[in-house]
Amino acid sequence: MGTSEAGVQNSERAHELMRQAHDSGYRFPEGFNGFRAKLSYQIGMTEAEADLIVRGPHMIEITAPDGVEVNPWVRRELMSMAGHRWHLPYEEADGKHVLTLDPDGDEDPLGQRIGVRNDSYDSSYRVANGRVAQVNRKVGPMRFSIWIQGRVDTGDGRELPNYFTVSYWDAKSGKFQRSDIYTDRYADVDGVWLPFERRIVTADDDGMRSQRLALTDHQLLTAEEAGADAEAPYHHVHQESEAASQPGDE
Questions:
Q1: From edge to edge, which strands make up the β-sheet containing 192-204?
Q2: pTM of the model
Q3: Of 17, 52, 96, 157, which has the fewest Cβ atoms less than 10 A away?
């Protein structure tokens, strides 16, 4: 558990709630080697296919046919989809931060508010029924909130988010920028739940548009195929930080 800041008490109850929420979320097994799959995606009227190998959230190999340039959006989404599922102990995630409990936060329909005091993103959460219901962060000039609206049961007491919405505001003016509505689907491959499909509908002042990527023909990598450089645990923020960052389906 993180240490207290000067004048700020690191709340044991907040950590209790966040650990419970962390443990309820599905992650790949410790030592997971990665996977390969066939990738297809559609952005507007543009469609393409490629071969994919994922050895870690930052070790993603996309092999497209000659003459096909893969849109950077595809790699960002794949990094997010892998990163949020990669094994990460609580102590290396929110457990290393100073957390505070809003004394009036449990009256909100979205749940108890928990503040994060020593991260770089002015983060906070809403936790209800042992699950993260909302994530709030600030990255650069943008502030965003993630609402998790649906989950799928993985059969072992854990869950995966399959419906969530991310809304963005200008951090300085508070002006609303856009909302991204996510629908995720998963495939159970030899006992490991892997990403199968992601659809995003974006709504902003320019109207509505959609994007989709799908993974098929999944195969788990062996330790030999993963190689000695397979990636260590990954800690994310969200999609407006790595060039924007990665989606926050927690």
A1: 59-63, 46-56, 35-43, 207-220, 192-204, 176-189, 159-170, 142-153, 131-139, 124-128, 112-116, 99-101
A2: 0.88
A3: 157
